[in-house]
Specification:
Elements: H1 11-37, H2 44-61, H3 73-97, H4 106-136, E1 142-147, H5 153-162, E2 168-174, H6 179-188, E3 193-197, H7 206-212, E4 219-223, H8 226-229, E5 236-239, E6 242-245, H9 255-289, E7 295-301, E8 307-313, H10 340-345, H11 353-359, E9 363-365, H12 372-378, E10 394-396, H13 398-401, H14 411-426, H15 430-444
Parallel strand pairs: 1-2, 1-3, 3-4, 9-10
Antiparallel strand pairs: 5-6, 7-8
Helix pairs in contact: 1-2, 1-4, 2-3, 3-4, 6-7, 9-11
Length: 451
């Protein structure tokens, strides 16, 4: 095993990163002062504020290097943004509760916060580039012995090549059945880490592989066969002290759930106020052009498969269908009212669902809710179909802004929609939600496939 001064956990590199973070906070403060006051000098009150903020940033970032190797580039930058949010939140809270906000220039504070985010992101990006350069020079590296040729082995090799800055190098791949070779390599201590990746039906070999590695001082990790299990939002959950591998879990736990709910409540309230004249106009038009109720209520599946009632402006003439069958709307459907096609094409029929959002039954963004009968049909045909219900159904979604709206008259179309929905669930973030809302304004409301 080679000596490496910059290997994971190095106090030197961790300390340098903290110093870079502190320098980024101070540099952004000087830049904001220069822009606001025309001078880089900070008096005592401002200097104290910057010092306190830099210490908060350093405290939040103290464990950030630990995730550098294992996390993606975006994950590292996401952690930087979280550090910035915590620091700015505490800063604003202190100014508010101490009633000292009037002692500081609001323009300076706002500019400083913006410059601080840009400086931290730039600084951390440069750190990652520096680590990549060190790896190419033979520093900051970890040699990995990959044992097994399971489904994830090829994917692991590609990920290592794409993430050269992480320092990981898969130096050798050995079949799990070649136990003598594994034992020989382990005895020589030529590797920093050993990754064991076996197919799901070969996991019985793990004790034998571990026995062959008994002389190794390397870190040993088992890579789950995620391609067989098709894990969603994978992770480890500790229940009563027992670690359990998450095969299928919602990404909206803890703080994420609260953030999503606040987002829904604020956006739905604002939108309902803005569109109230449109709601009134559409309601009158529906009532005048066809006998029957203004709203159409349909049973759908919500979060965790619970049945909910979804509101829509009625776009079809009043008719009866059996409880077991729901016929999807088709182009030139005879059941449409005079304004039905227009309501569907422009998505105006969906507007009452903002009421569902305030009720907590739906979300602004999420997988579109399907009729209960359709769920019963497709869950037998499409693997992981019901995983769509790991999140509240949405008025708009990732599938909709990518053109998957309207009738799903073939299994391929529904499979594509499900794939987009699961991609959204696995990659949820507040930024992604805001992006979808923004794109819906231009791509999601009016669609030739919506009828």
């Amino acid at each position: 095993m080679r000596a490496n001064a910059t290997r994971n956990g190095s106090p030197l590199l961790s300390t340098l990163i903290l110093l870079f973070d502190i320098l980024a906070v101070w540099a952004s403060a000087f830049a904001a002062a220069k822009w606001r006051f025309g001078s880089e000098d900070l008096d005592g009150n401002y200097a104290t504020l910057v010092l306190a903020t830099s210490l908060i940033v350093a405290g939040c970032s103290s464990a950030v290097y630990k995730s550098f190797r294992g996390g993606s580039w975006l994950a590292v930058l996401g952690r930087v943004k979280l550090t910035w949010l915590v620091a700015c939140g505490l800063l604003v809270a202190w100014l508010f509760f101490s009633k000292s906000a009037d002692d500081y220039s609001r323009l300076f504070i706002g500019t400083w916060m913006l410059f601080m985010l840009l400086a931290l992101v730039l600084e951390r990006s440069l750190v990652l580039l520096g680590m990549r350069w060190l790896s190419k020079k033979g520093y900051n590296t970890k040699d990995v012995l990959l044992v097994g040729t399971g489904p994830m082995s090829a994917d692991l090799s590609k990920r290592v090549q794409r993430s050269a800055w992480s320092g990981y190098q898969i130096s050798q791949v050995v079949d799990a059945l070649a136990l003598e070779k594994v034992e020989e390599l382990a005895a020589n201590n030529d590797f920093d880490e050993v990754w064991i990746n076996l197919a799901a039906n070969d996991t019985v070999l793990i004790p034998k592989v571990l026995h062959a590695l008994r002389y190794s001082a390397a870190d040993i990790r088992v890579v789950p066969d995620m391609l067989t299990y098709r894990i969603m939002n994978h992770g480890i959950t500790f229940i009563m002290g027992v670690p359990m591998l998450d095969i299928s879990a919602s990404s909206l736990g803890g703080t994420n759930k609260l953030v999503k709910r606040i987002e829904d409540y604020l956006l739905a309230s604002l939108i309902l106020i803005l569109i109230s004249p449109v709601l009134l106009a559409v309601a009158i038009a529906v009532k005048l052009t066809s006998p029957g109720p203004v709203f159409f209520r349909q049973r759908r599946h919500g979060w965790n498969g619970e049945e909910i009632k979804v509101y829509k402006f009625r776009s079809m003439k009043v008719h009866k269908e059996s409880k077991e069958t729901i016929t999807q709307a088709q182009k030139n459907d005879a059941r449409f009212t005079a304004i039905g096609p227009f309501l569907r094409r422009t998505s105006l029929d969906e507007l009452p669902q903002f009421i569902n959002v305030l009720q907590g039954r739906m979300s602004i963004v999420g997988p579109r809710p399907h009729a209960v009968q359709h769920n019963h049909h497709y869950k037998e045909l499409i693997p992981r179909y019901m995983l769509r219900h790991k999140m509240k159904p949405g008025i708009t979604g990732w599938a909709q802004i990518n053109g998957l709206r309207g009738e799903t008259d073939t299994l391929d179309k529904m499979e594509a929609r499900v794939d987009y929905d699961l991609h959204y669930l696995e990659n949820w973030s507040l930024f992604l939600d805001l992006k979808i809302v923004f794109l819906t304004v231009f791509k999601g409301f009016i669609n030739k496939n919506a009828y």
